[in-house]
Amino acid sequence: MKTRPEEKRSSPSRRRFLRQSAAGALGLSALSKAGGAMAQTLSPDTIPAQTGVPSGIVRLNFNENPAGPSPKALEAIRSHLHEMNLYGINTTALLMKLNQMAGIDFSDLDLSRRSDLNEMWRKNRVFLSDGSGNLLRAAAFTLLRQGGEVVEAEPAYGDVSEHADFMDSELGINVKTVRVPLTRDMRHDLDGMRSAVHSRTRLVVVTNPNNPTGTIVTPASLERFILSIPEEVVVLVDEAYVEYVQAPGFRSMAHLAISRPNVLVTRTFSKVYGLPGLRMGYALGMPDTFKHFWMHTSFPSPIAIHAAGAAVDDAPHVANSKQTTWRGRDFLYSRLDEMGLTYVQTESNFLIVDVGDSDRITRELARSGVFVRNAERLWKLNGHIRVSVGTDSDNDAFVNALRRIIT
To answer: Which residues have C-beta within 8 Å of that of residue 351, sequence separation ≥ 6?
Structure first.
């Protein structure tokens, strides 16, 4: 029997999250000053020093790219550092690339002709932003500005829902959040979400692959779901981790976003491209769908634009990022199997693991210098932690620490 959607179910507020993040940063600083004493139980060769991360710290709590940033992106940054005193940048080349990746055909255009350049802008289906997180905020504040309801799975990334809750509780806008529990196998309950859509619904959010579970819904089922939603309701598909999916026949919803006014797809350069520090993301959709997003986002910096354009062209880095993640994921699977722990098969660069006492395990791992997410505390996934796939050394450190804790 399906669980009924729940309205206004308690979840960490954005301000509480920021306070927790600040506390975590202070804690990380304190651990750094401790000179790595808390990591003394692990051998030095299993706890690598990373750029910008204190020696003895293994960060498997941020879903970062263990392959690092694109070398071509780094070269592009170096080549344009001298231009930081200048305003503005020509985004045509990057927009062309992202549109073409989404399926827009520009092969008949000659951009040296003004008429063809105007045609390119008419065909444009890309909205650039300083990170995909701000696109989620823009969707909430733009599409719910006159009130209404948003439907989102739980647990899921939840950013849109948190903004909706803020609009209701702090701004006095009559916005209601309907959170629909995942299915037993930790996937979006599309039938349940469809049942939750009614006359006051303005926005539906699907995170695919889902965060924190790493699961996906099939392209066929998601497309049927989207096509069943009334045209006045926007469906936002967050595809931050889409490049990591290995499932046969998987397909992005970009083809719907570029052709239907009630579909948006959000993407990021923070994951497979390895550029979270530059805050670079984009949305795919019809121009009228995101025409007011500029009020709630900022334009990416010129350096971010240059880096993103180079990263898109760096196919070897993208391939290496995927292979590094898939190899690390399979390694974690094998070691977790050896320890007799259960986990959810993932299509992303992280996975959730049932460790029983997630509070104790998270705390003990941190004492060993290994940081993961407590999925019970953050997402009500009883007994689970969420661990990012890291470098080979990161993964070794996590496995060694976890094995010692649970035995």
So the answer is: 214, 329, 332, 343, 344, 345, 386, 387, 389
Count the Cβ atoms, other than its own, within 10 Å of residue 123.
16
Stronger pLDDT, 37 or 219, i.e. the higher one: 219
- CATH 3.40.640.10 applies to domain 76-313: yes
pLDDT tens digit string along 164-207? 999 999 999 999 999 999 999 999 999 999 999 999 999 999 99
Decide if 147 contacts 175 (C-beta within 8 A).
Answer: yes
Average pLDDT of the residues in 77-82:
95
Tell me which residue of 242, 245, 394 sits closest to 331, measured CA to CA: 394
Phi-psi region of 274 (alpha: psi -120 to 50; beta: other; left: phi over 0): left
* Residue 248 vs residues 96, 208, 219: alpha-carbon distances, Å: 28, 15, 10
Q: Which two tokens stand for residue 389?
A: 């796939």
- In this predicted model, what pLDDT tens digit does every residue of 346-356 receive, in sequence order? 999 999 999 99
More confident residue, 343 or 4: 343
Give the count of beta carbons closer than 10 Å to the beta carbon of residue 130: 17
Task: Please report which helix (H) or strand (E) contains residue 397, including its range.
Answer: helix 392-406
Sheet with 373-374: list strands edge to edge.
342-343, 350-354, 384-388, 373-374
| Whether the Cβ atoms of residue 370 and residue 397 lie closer than 8 Å to each other | yes
Q: Would you place residue 74 in the very low, low, confident or very high pLDDT band (cuts 50, 70, 90)?
A: very high
Residue 272's pLDDT band, with cuts at 50, 70 and 90, is very high
Single-letter amino acid code for the residue at 170: E
The structural domains of the chain, with segments of one domain joined by +, span 34-69+316-406, 76-313
Nearest to 2, CA basis, from 265, 191, 237: 191
Band of residue 107 on the pLDDT scale cut at 50, 70, 90: confident
Burial of 171 (0-12, 13-18, 19+ CB in 10 A): exposed
Tell me the CATH class for 34-69+316-406.
alpha beta
In our burial notation (b when 16+ CB lie closer than 10 A, e otherwise), range 235-258 reads: bbbbbbbbbbbeeeeeebbbbbbb
